[in-house]
Write a sequence for this structure.
């Protein structure tokens, strides 16, 4: 039986199939600012043109007779930025109008859209941000660090708030026969730069279990003479009430047959709490952010993938290689949890990934953990397992019945109340849970609690819940019938 893979690999497009000349497949001629557009500069004889491939309509590339040193498409709209020497221009392709233009004093060595309305410009000496709004001109953000002198700039990243900025460059070391990576991490609030040895990096928000807010995670990978490392750290101060993310440093494996391989791209999946890293030789590495565990590694391309972006539809990574293949990798939501359990033999990680991503595949592990805690009378912990289990597999009438049958311990809330309290903290109660919680609350005459939970959307309204409440509070029952869309019961109460 073939081993199930934890990833999905897809070829979306072969650029030669839509008429793109393979001579134009390279870092200096193809840009991809997001998964929506690929922009290619072509030259046939003396004729120069820019080809724009809309990934939602790949069979109809847009061709424009444009001569430029570089062209980058806006991440979300049909707006293109063009560079010719020191001259910069931004055009709206749909309106067929120029939005703005600017001439810099220095040459731009690298540029990139860092949001839908801001372009970052990297010169030999500094980094500028150029807002698209109004008459705003490029503003210098920071000076380049001396450690990047002579480097080819290959990327520029920011966190979501644009408070942390990262410049990435590489240079060839002939004596050592390797490519050295140099980074400059800049804090806007502190106005301080830190040089870092590294090849690829990403910022990704990540919520640590138990924290109220997301941590601002910075991950970077390097391969030097001593080997490969992946560092995962939190930048800035933790949000109020948050515990600090524990820094992770793990080895990055490079196969013996790839002695000169090194990381070239990284994307973080906020949705899944994972990191995708691609190397020059076409290997994909998949890491868990919280633990730093390498979940999967394999070669996906025999040719260098030289430009990448986040693949939003799958929360994975998409890129273009030197053969013109447009490839994406994402997790296989059906297989990743069983793969971690069975192949990595890591049930703890399987449980965490299943909870974080609400994925099936670890049902037996959750049931086993729940039963073990229940038998040990650790009812609060058992309730947390039941509440967090994916797809609501443990949120059943049978679970409620088990908590109802547990004896209360002196000085503590009943196990059933502990269970409902934990559910109310994290989610909406289902129909059965709403009914079983309402019974003791009504018996105690605490109708205002039910009203509060209704307003907060914590209860699933049903005809049965309305009938139960009606004997104690007609007005509250009317509110339930309205929310449950039971018109005959609403009319009956109103008319009487």
């Amino acid at each position: 039986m073939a081993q199930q893979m934890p990833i999905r690999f897809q070829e979306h497009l072969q650029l030669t199939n839509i008429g793109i000349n393979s001579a134009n497949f390279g870092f200096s001629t193809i840009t991809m600012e997001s998964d929506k557009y690929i922009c290619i500069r072509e030259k046939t004889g003396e004729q120069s043109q820019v080809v724009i491939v809309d990934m939602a309509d790949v069979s109809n590339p847009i061709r424009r007779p444009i001569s430029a040193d570089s062209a980058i498409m806006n991440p979300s709209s049909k707006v293109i930025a063009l560079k010719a020497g020191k001259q910069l221009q931004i055009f709206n392709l749909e309106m067929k109008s120029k939005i703005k233009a600017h001439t810099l004093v220095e040459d731009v060595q690298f540029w990139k859209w860092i949001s839908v309305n801001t372009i970052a410009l990297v010169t030999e000496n500094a980094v500028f941000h150029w807002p698209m709004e109004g008459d705003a001109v490029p503003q210098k953000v920071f000076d380049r660090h001396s450690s990047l002198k002579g480097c080819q700039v290959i990327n520029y990243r920011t966190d979501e708030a644009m408070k942390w900025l990262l410049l990435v460059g590489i240079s060839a070391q002939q004596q050592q026969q390797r490519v050295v990576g140099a980074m400059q991490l800049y804090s806007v609030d502190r106005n301080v730069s830190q040089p870092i040895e590294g090849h690829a990096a990403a910022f990704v928000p990540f919520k640590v279990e138990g924290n109220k807010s997301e941590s601002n995670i910075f991950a970077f990978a390097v391969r030097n003479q001593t080997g490969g490392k992946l560092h995962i750290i939190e930048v800035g101060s933790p949000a109020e009430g948050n515990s600090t993310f524990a820094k992770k440093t793990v080895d990055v494996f490079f196969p013996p047959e790839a002695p000169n391989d090194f990381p070239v791209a990284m994307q973080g999946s906020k949705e899944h709490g994972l990191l995708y890293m691609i190397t020059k030789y076409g290997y994909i590495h998949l890491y868990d952010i919280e633990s730093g565990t390498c979940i999967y590694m394999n070669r996906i391309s025999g040719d260098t993938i030289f430009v990448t972006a986040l693949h939003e539809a799958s929360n994975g990574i998409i890129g273009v290689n030197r053969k013109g293949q447009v490839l994406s990798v994402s997790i296989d939501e059906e297989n990743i949890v069983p793969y971690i359990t069975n192949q990595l033999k890591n049930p703890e990680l399987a449980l965490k990934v299943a909870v974080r991503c609400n994925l099936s595949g670890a049902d037996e592990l959750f049931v086993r953990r729940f039963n073990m805690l229940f038998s040990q009378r650790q009812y609060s912990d058992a309730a947390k397992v039941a509440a967090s289990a994916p797809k609501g597999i443990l949120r059943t009438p049978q679970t409620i019945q088990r908590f109802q049958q547990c004896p209360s311990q002196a000085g503590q809330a009943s196990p059933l109340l502990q269970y409902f309290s934990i559910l109310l903290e994290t989610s909406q109660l289902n129909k059965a849970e709403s009914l079983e919680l309402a019974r003791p609350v009504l018996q105690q005459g605490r109708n205002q609690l039910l009203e509060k939970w209704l307003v907060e959307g914590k209860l699933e309204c049903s005809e049965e819940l309305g009938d139960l409440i009606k004997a104690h509070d007609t007005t509250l029952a009317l509110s339930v019938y309205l929310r449950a869309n039971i018109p005959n019961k609403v009319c009956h109460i109103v008319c009487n």
Notes: The chain has a mean pLDDT of 93. The longest helix spans residues 363-375.
